[in-house]
Amino acid sequence: MMALSPAKRAKPLPEAARRRKAAAWRRWLTIAVVSVVAFFLLRSIYTQWDVLARHQWSLRWDWLLSSAILVWLDFITLILLWRFILVRVGERPLPFRTAYRVWFLSNFGKYLPGKVWTVMGMVYLLNAEGYSAPPVLVSAILNQALSILSGLVLSVIVLGAQAFGGTPLWLLIAVGMLAAAVLYPPLLQKMINFGLRLVRRESIEIPLPFVTIALLFLVYLGTWIVYGGAFWLLLIGIGIHPSGSFIEIVAIFAASYLLGFLALFVPGGLGVREGALAVLAGRYLPLGLAAPVAVLSRIWLTVTELLAAIPLLWLRNRRDTT
After folding, report:
1. How far apart are the C-alpha atoms of 311 and 78, rounded to whole Å?
2. Total domains, the chain
3. N or C: which end of the chain has fewer CB within 10 A?
4. From CA 61, how far away is CA 319, in angstroms rounded?
5. How many Cα neighbours within 13 Å face the side chain of 43?
């Protein structure tokens, strides 16, 4: 038998080295982005420290509890929406406690660099439960697409008129065309499959009719209102009464959350979401409080998410029977 020469055996090494180098660059890019945004946030808090010290902070636990309840209700709604899509696409029942466990465990993937770990986590965890990858992938992609689009539409419609003295016609047309593309299954399928071909993945099919996706879009829009409403209740709960209307605060929260989500190499949008929230909400909050409120919002929502994940400790050792 002919032995492989050292040159031939060494061929895989350069590819592995390139992958390590690319991973290192992504890691350093993530650190750089988070560090820069954190620096400006902390500097803003430091320069406004006198304002923070003079502000009369007053905790209202009933409002804070209401905020937490809204966050949890929003989580449950999002799980039910994703579960509905998966069941319709895969034509196979999915017990709610399984959906709850998989959704929360995979959702923690957002704290890793890149935005694919949540989707890949769903595929991996449900594959272990006997679900094939294609319907899980379709449900995860539809879930992300409808969530992003509904938040984008809400932000543009509400904040566009405020920021530009009337939403530009071209912007409304662009958002309308995007909405039509995502809500119309054949076009959405072509868009998704084009992206999958770029990453050398198999094509998918979307068997949901237009009416179903349009109704799902409206419900996803409602989840943003509930999630932003939790942020509004948080402000009231710490004694801050924003000058903007409820829907303006909701749209600001949605826009900042999306900006953080779309920052691909930043885990969980850390720093980017807070920076965007501080800028967008600055005109509606007392002077000097925007940056600390943005940081406090991150802490509060992270705590509520961790509390909502506590049932996983109970579900882990129980078999699904429903």
Report:
1. 17
2. 1
3. N
4. 36
5. 7
Residue that is written with structure tokens 């003079």 in the block: 54
pLDDT digits (tens, 9 = 90+) for 155-174: 888 887 555 445 566 766 67
17 falls in which pLDDT band (50, 70, 90)?
Answer: low
Asked if 284 contacts 252 with a C-beta cutoff of 8 angstroms, the reply is yes
Left, alpha or beta for 91 (phi > 0: left; psi -120 to 50: alpha)? left
DSSP per-residue string spanning 56-97: -----HHHHHHHHHHHHHHHHHHHHHHHHHHHHHHTS---HH
pLDDT, tens only, 182-235:
778 888 788 778 877 776 767 777 888 888 988 999 999 999 999 999 999 999
DSSP string, 231-289: HHHHHHHTT---SS-HHHHHHHHHHHHHHHHH-TTSGGGTTHHHHHHHHHHGGGS-TT-
Task: Count helices and strands (H / E) in the chain.
Answer: 14, 0
How far, in whole angstroms, is CA 174 from its chain's centroid?
A: 22
Contact predicate 29/265, CB 8 Å: yes
Query: Measured in Å, how far apart are the chain's first and last C-alpha atoms?
Result: 58
Q: What is the rounded CA–CA span in Å between residue 208 and residue 88?
A: 8
Instruction: Tell me, yes or no, whether 305 lies in a domain.
Output: yes
Please choose, from the candidates 126, 93, 113, the residue with its C-alpha nearest in 3D space to the C-alpha of residue 29: 113
Residue 135 lies in a domain: yes
The residue type of 272 is V
Closest CA to 227 of 160, 292, 273: 273
Question: Is there a contact between 203 and 135 (Cβ–Cβ < 8 Å)?
Answer: no
Is residue 84 in a domain? yes
> Nearest 5 degrees, angle CA 63-CA 303-CA 65?
15
Provide the residue range defining the domain that includes 230: 61-315
Instruction: Report pTM.
Output: 0.76
In a domain, 25, yes or no: no
Residue 34, both tokens = 């988070």
pLDDT for the residue numbered 8:
47
Q: Report how far residue 87's alpha carbon sits from residue 40's, in angstroms, rounded to the nearest whole number.
A: 45
